[in-house]
Design a protein that fits this description.
15% of the residues lie in helices and 35% in strands. The protein is of the alpha+beta class. It is extended. The protein has one helix at 3-23, and strands at 53-62, 71-72, 77-83, 85-90, 95-99, 103-105, 112-116, 122-131, 138-139. It has one helix and nine strands. It has a domain at 53-139: Sandwich (Jelly Rolls). A hairpin with a 4-residue loop joins strand 4 (85-90) and strand 5.
Length: 144
C-alpha cells in the first residue's frame, strides 16, 4: 500500500471516530444536590405540620443596605440565595452569612432578622410549607 493510501485510511478513521464522538450527547438530566439536612440553621429538627399543607414559593428582592424587621416563622421555611449575600442574625445567639448558591433552612419560632451584606442586591427563592392560610412570618412589635 502506498503511503498516500495509508494516510487516507488513517484520516478517514480519525474523521469517523471524531464524528461518532461528536454525536454523543450530554445527559438529558443533570442533578446537582445543593443541600441535605435534618436540622434548621439553629440546630432544631425539621418538622412539618400535620395535615394538608400549602406550599408558597416567592422571590424576595432586597436592596443593598436593607435590614428586615425582627421576625419568626411558626412553620418551616426554606430559602435559596440567588444573588448577593445575606446575614441572618438569631436574636439571642449566632449569625451567619449566606451567599449566592447557598441554601437556608430557617429556624422555627425563634426571633431573628436578615440584613444584606455589601453593595449588591440580594435575591432569594423562599419556600414556605404551612397549613392552608397559615401565616408564614410573625413580626416582633416593640413593647409599648
Amino acid at each position: 500500500m502506498t503511503r498516500l493510501a495509508v494516510a487516507v485510511i488513517i484520516c478517514l478513521t480519525l474523521i469517523a471516530s471524531g464524528a461518532a464522538f461528536a454525536e454523543e450527547r450530554a445527559p438529558a438530566e443533570v442533578v446537582t444536590e445543593i443541600a441535605r439536612a435534618t436540622k434548621t440553621a439553629a440546630g432544631q429538627p425539621i418538622n412539618l405540620p400535620q395535615g394538608p399543607l400549602e406550599v408558597v414559593a416567592s422571590i424576595y428582592t432586597l436592596a443593598p443596605g436593607s435590614r428586615l424587621p425582627e421576625h419568626k416563622h411558626p412553620f418551616q421555611r426554606y430559602a435559596y440565595v440567588l444573588e448577593g449575600a445575606l446575614r441572618v442574625q438569631q436574636t439571642d445567639s449566632s449569625s451567619r452569612i449566606y451567599r449566592a448558591g447557598e441554601f437556608i433552612i430557617e429556624s422555627v419560632d425563634r426571633w431573628h432578622y436578615g440584613a444584606t451584606v455589601g453593595d449588591a442586591v440580594v435575591k432569594l427563592l423562599v419556600i414556605d410549607q404551612a397549613p392552608q392560610g397559615g401565616e408564614a412570618t410573625v413580626e416582633r412589635h416593640p413593647a409599648p
